[in-house]
Amino acid sequence: MRKAILGAMLVLAGAGGTLSAAPAPAPRPAASVRPAEAQGRLEGPFELRARAYPGTVRRYWVYVPADYDPVRPPNLLLFQDGQRATNPRGSLKVPAVLDGLLQAHAIPSTLAIFVTPGNRSAHYPTTLGMDNPDHRVEEYDALSDAYSRMTLDELLPAVAQRWPFTSDPKRRAIAGTSSGAIAAFTVAWRHPDAFGNVLSFIGSYTSIGLQLGPDGTPRVYGGDTYPGLIRKSAIRPLRIFLQDGRNDLDNEHGNWFLANQQMVKSLQWANAHADAAHAAGPRYDISWRWTDGSHSDADGGALLPEALRWIWRDQAARGR
Within 10 A of 71 (CB to CB), how many other CB atoms are there? Predict the structure, then answer.
């Protein structure tokens, strides 16, 4: 019996696993929308010229669920690279996924914000389409607090003026893919009092943001420092879902799949170290999925319904 249990644990460790008390659910197909049922509406795009980044402009959209009630402010999902997250022909199709999950009463009522990175221009270029604006690296791959301050002090208040949403960090999730994922992690890492949940797909926990001085000394550090920071910092009360593909990028910035594995290992170590020391306080609640994909939103899009159910698994949905 002990050998059988050990074998099952080894299989789980290789394919993905969870540190939560209950195992993460098995992957399910992306939620489908039944046209006869009420669907949320996507408002926007709106433009935001942020004080945190003078000379830049970004677009954002707001998904308002069909059951929106300002008297009972809904959960919040904030997704980076909003132009791709809202693309009805893309891999993520987040508004359609939310429609399907809400119709099935699988998650609580959720308002979603989809924001692009900034662009150095007076207005957001209509010609960009799904391409990245030109200020993405400076915002998404930096470890400073500037992007968090823009998000918390400018973007969220602008949306809340019209559509109030919850202030409870346990009911707020921040998400992204690639550099959008590390941007999401940075906001939650620095401000767990604002966001208690992170969804990270093909996260760029690599040295994209690293800047070297003339003598080769780092002037600005990149996302590859996060595994060390996690091990040497106090544990944040965060619930984190990570996905990456074994065929992700391997270039001058780093190896994406190895970087994501390092993130999981560091989160595991932080929990184990705190347990061994009988330390009071929170533990990281994490789930991860290693797929065979490349640097693409496809696997993250397929896993998004599962990730959202797991993130809010202990919250009752309306209508249940």
Answer: 5
